[in-house]
Amino acid sequence: MAVKKFVVGNFDDEAVLFPAVKKVRRAGYKIHDVFTPFPIHGLDKAMGLRDTSLHTAGFIYGISGTATAVGFITWALTIDWQINFGGKPFFSLPAWIPVTFELTVLFAAVGMVLTFCYLCQLAPFVKKDHFNPRSTDDTFVMALECTDKTSETEAMSFLQTIGAKEVKVEYKETGWWLGRYDKDTMRFQKKEADH
Amino acid sequence: MALLRYESQVRPPLVDGSKDYHQVTEDICRPVEANPSRLWWIGFLVSVALLIFGIISVTMEVIYGTGQWNLNKTVGWGWDITNFVWWVGIGHAGTLISAILLLFRQGWRTGVNRAAEAMTIFAVMCAGQFPIWHMGRVWNAFFVLPYPNTRGPLWVNFNSPLLWDVFAISTYFTVSLLFWYSGLLPDLATLRDRAKVKWRKAFYGVAAFGWTGSTKHWQRHEALSLVLAGLSTPLVLSVHTIVSFDFATSVVPGWHTTIFPPYFVAGAIFSGFAMVQTLLVVTRKVLGLEDYITIEHIDVMNKVIVLTGSIVGIAYLTELFMAWYSAVGYEEFAFFENRLNLSSPYGWSYWIMMGCNVLSPQIFWFKKMRRNLFVTFFMSILVNIGMWFERFVIIVTSVYRDYLPSAWSTYYTPTIWEVGFYMGTFGLFFTCYFLFSKFFPVIALAEIKHILKKNGENFKDNMDEVEEESTEEFGEKHGHDHGA
Asked: What's the pLDDT tens digit per position in B136-151?
């Protein structure tokens, strides 16, 4: 198993973290990930993460729920076993709206949650590495991935100048438990650099 | 700074006291990590005792059939369906708070949403018991599902409101559970990372699903919460609408009205908020969370109660008007004789309903009353009683004397086993709630931290100064010279 080197900086204020993320990217370091105790709006943009397409997945699941309900009820009540309910037409769509709606919601919700867990690789009994246990409490942890060219002393002092309270170097075995974000991260844009 | 959006100074803080992020974690995790108090044990054991009473009552019903209940030819739905609608109604507040108020960007929801969602899930669990055991031959309960069978296959009747209910309640339960648990993941991770004892590490390690707080995960989590909120909003409205269809699509006098869906939904929110108040007034005190569930939260929820109570009141008056205006003798009889007339056999129940649901909440027009904990607690109980009687009035007074005088029933009173079943669901509800409050954080940790800088008392004081600065200025001033 390959071992990777990370320079890890702990921040105690998201107001410091924000400009720091931008500066780190401008300086050309590769951010492995930033771990935060709560969602920080805009941090994903600042890190250059692509938008998630979970919404689209949810829409597709919802539509498939609608199609399942309408298709199945139509087949069951007009083709497979016709029953005369008080002289109403066999194909009585308005009466099927409630079940159709419920199945739409059910498919969308269950599908999205499962997709979310799959994408984030979350499941019971899964153990993952997030560098600092206090990142679920009050610390904002930025992990820089070191390449052959990276000088760790430079990276450490750089992190300190931009506001990290505590900096250290860590070695981690690579694997899915570290998360893979390369496909989700956009290259640092010229536009951002000018900003 | 994206985190410093404008927040009016007029709005009081949502988190009292001088807190930083770590203090928030400490405060909210303390009740989970400490040993259960004597009060907790007493409450828990009483709940378990009630639950056992309920199990015995249900067992009696299964052995001897629904004849164990005092239902008769005319009153086929008695306490059981009354309790079903009552519990489902209570189960509406949680999703309303977490979903609709999320879409409306109501910051105060963060203090109460986790407990309210848990309450929703437990209430729906209780509600589901009644139609299931009311089936009598409960071992055939799976007949309500559309599955290929040896009877043709004969499918379920998709045109029937009772089947819509099966889909609505089960979907509502599933979606609420997913919404609640996905929101809990980050907080369980906090507990996991703080755990010192072995079983805690193992328990929360499994429960937290390996949550790390990675920015990418948060981005997806936010997307998930938003879409689930968007889905739950029409869902929560649909559930009680469909429950009201159970009545409204029939031709029973007193049930056959078009205002039932909005009237039931308003009633559900009304009773749900009352139950949230009952639980939270006690929870905040016992667990010492007064800084997070503040008087402000209580005040806001009381405003919702007076609003929805008044909507329900208008619905009652509209029903009376429509009964008179329709000039249908049966409708008039149902409303003016069976309900309004105090000297008719069940007239008293109508007036309890009116008193508890329409008159008494009007006290909340006064700010002093809204912010008084004793009044709030007392009122929340009254509203719960009133809303139970609303369902009782709708069900029993409509069916015990309708079209055919020869079919009129004698006075319907429940048996001990019917009452025991109802008590049993209280046992189930509170057993679950006590376990929840012991093992899970009753306040959404991450969400409180998210709003802390906008709504925390110690931060709010400095907002004036901060608001004057532009984003860049703020970044320069508070950002650069921090660490180095």
From this structure: 889 988 888 888 888 7
Domain final position from A103, A120, A137: A120
Residue of B150, B187, B217, B225 to mutate for A, most A C-beta atoms under 10 A: B217
Of the candidates B1, B205, B212, which has its C-beta nearest A35's C-beta? B212
Q: Which residues of A102-124 are buried (b: 16+ CB within 10 A; e: fewer)?
A: bbbbbbbbbbbbebbbebbbbee
Q: Are residues A88 and A114 in the same domain?
A: yes
- pLDDT digit string (tens) for A16-33? 888 888 888 888 888 888
What is the span of the domain harbouring residue A12?
3-51+129-194
Measured between CA atoms, how close is B360 to chain A, in angstroms? Answer: 35
Domain containing B49 equals 21-138+158-293+417-461
Please check whether residue B479 touches A, CB under 8 A. Answer: yes
Distances (CA, A) of A136 to A34, A38, A173, B341, B438: 12, 8, 22, 61, 20
Residues 380..409 of B with a Cβ closer than 8 Å to A: which?
none
Contact at CB, B171 and A106, closer than 8 angstroms? yes
| Total structural domains within chain A | 2
**B337 lies in some domain:** no
As for how many domains chain B has, the answer is 1
Does B384 fall in a domain? no
At which of A120, A139, A163 does a domain end? A120
ipTM comes to: 0.89
User: 130-169 in B: which are within 8 Å (CB) of A?
Assistant: 146, 152-155, 157-159, 161, 163-164, 167-168
Q: Which CATH number characterizes residue A8's domain?
A: 3.30.70
Per-residue DSSP letters for B262-301?
A: HHHHHHHHHHHHHHHHHHHHHHHHHTT-TTTS-HHHHHHH
Residue B151 lies in a domain: no
Record the pTM. Answer: 0.89
- Average per-residue pLDDT for chain A: 84
What are the two backbone dihedrals, phi and then psi, of residue B135, each rounded to the nearest 5 degrees?
-60, -20
Grouping H, G, I as helix, E, B as strand and the rest as coil, residue B359 is helix
For A164, name the nearest residue in chain B, comparing CA atoms only: B483
Nearest CB neighbour to A36, from listed B153, B163, B215: B215
